[in-house]
């Protein structure tokens, strides 16, 4: 019996699927680890995919 597959989710056109980035702030803590902050894509909110109902909408 054939199995139905759902369509693959489309990657975000704004970030090409790379939805989050870790950015160093330049400082280090007492253990020597870099201070980082994360930045999420404003179009897909850090998920990397765009829902079907959002494809035609302006972001």
Topology:
Blueprint (H helix, E strand, L loop, with lengths): L9 E2 L8 E9 L5 E7 L8 E2 L9
Antiparallel strand pairs: 1-4, 2-3
Explain this structure to me?
This protein is an all-beta fold. The chain has strands spanning about 10, 20-30, 35-40, 50. Strands 1-4 form a two-stranded antiparallel sheet. Strands 2-3 form a two-stranded antiparallel sheet. Strand 2 (about 20-30) and strand 3 (about 35-40) form a beta hairpin. The chain starts with 9 loop residues before the first strand and ends in a 9-residue tail after the last strand. The model has no long low-confidence stretch (mean pLDDT about 80).
- The helix content, as a percent range, equals under 10%
Question: What is the general shape?
Answer: elongated
User: How far is the N terminus from the C terminus?
Assistant: 41 Å
Report the sheet with the most strands, covering strand number, pairing sense and barrel closure. 2 strands, antiparallel
Q: What percent of residues are in strands?
A: 25-35%
User: Helix and strand succession?
Assistant: EEEE
Protein traits:
two-stranded antiparallel sheet; mainly beta; elongated; 59 residues
Briefly, what is this?
The protein is mainly β and 59 residues long. It is built from no helices and 4 strands.
């Amino acid at each position: 019996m054939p199995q139905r597959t759902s369509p693959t989710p489309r990657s975000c056109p704004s970030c090409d699927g790379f939805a989050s980035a870790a950015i160093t702030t330049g400082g280090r803590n007492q253990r020597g680890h870099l201070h980082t902050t994360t930045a999420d894509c404003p179009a897909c909110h850090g998920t990397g995919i765009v829902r079907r109902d959002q494809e035609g909408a302006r972001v």
